């Protein structure tokens, strides 16, 4: 194993562990200076976007199955929001269904829109793997949660879906990574 591969694997494990720890123990919070939504009316439904690069007045939600190329999961949708909103609620509005594991039902994401299926062989550098969603997903094949501010670069989310707040103009991506590829969402 090369040093860059070890660093990538260690970074992935550390990020997954941090995501798990924060999701399990942090309480929902609003961003500094943000107030609760003025209206409790139901938001309008998410609107489909032709591409991830199109502007979105709400939160752009992107699901990318990465190198496993499972188009059943892939989508790009603009979800109208007018205030900081939990990422889990934004995904619900985008019709993105996430599944946890038996051991961690709400703390981690094991499947997105049924991908990877329990009978799907995930090809990786050491052979093939099937995700059974019983425990923590494999460190070499997992869904990562990414956030991009209105202007700036993608960053690995530091909170889980239930505590992460996303605001209008931000983008939220679930990206499936195998053996560190893709390492981050496309620009």
Description:
This protein is of the alpha+beta class and 187 residues long. The protein has helices spanning 3-25, 87-93; strands at 47-48, 59-64, 75-79, 85-86, 98-99, 111-112, 122-124, 127-129, 141-148, 155-156, 165-166, 171-178. The strands form 4 sheets. It has a 6-stranded mixed β-sheet with strand order 1-3-2-12-9-10, covered by helices on one side. A hairpin with a 2-residue loop joins β7 (122-124) and β8 (127-129). The radius of gyration is 16 Å and the shape is globular. It starts with a helix and ends in a 9-residue tail after the last strand. Residues 1-44 have low confidence and may be disordered.
Keywords:
disordered N terminus, two-stranded antiparallel sheet, alpha+beta, 6-stranded mixed β-sheet, 12 strands, 187 residues, 24% strand, globular
């Amino acid at each position: 194993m090369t040093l860059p591969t070890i660093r990538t694997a260690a970074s992935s494990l550390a990020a997954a562990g941090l995501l798990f720890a924060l999701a399990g123990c942090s309480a929902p919070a609003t961003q500094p200076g943000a107030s609760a939504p003025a209206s409790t009316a139901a938001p309008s439904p998410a609107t489909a976007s032709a591409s991830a690069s199109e502007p979105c007045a709400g939160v752009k939600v992107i699901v990318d199955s990465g190198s496993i190329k499972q188009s059943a999961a892939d989508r790009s949708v603009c979800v109208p929001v007018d205030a900081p909103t939990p990422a889990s609620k934004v995904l619900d509005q985008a019709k993105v269904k996430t599944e946890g594991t038996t051991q961690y039902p709400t703390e981690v994401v094991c499947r997105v829109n049924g991908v990877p299926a329990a009978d799907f062989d995930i090809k990786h550098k050491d052979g093939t793997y099937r995700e059974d969603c019983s425990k923590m997903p494999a460190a070499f094949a997992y869904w990562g949660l990414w956030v991009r501010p209105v202007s700036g670069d993608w960053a690995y989310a530091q909170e889980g879906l239930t505590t992460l707040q996303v605001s209008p103009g931000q983008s939220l991506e679930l990206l499936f990574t195998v053996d560190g590829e893709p390492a981050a969402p496309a620009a």
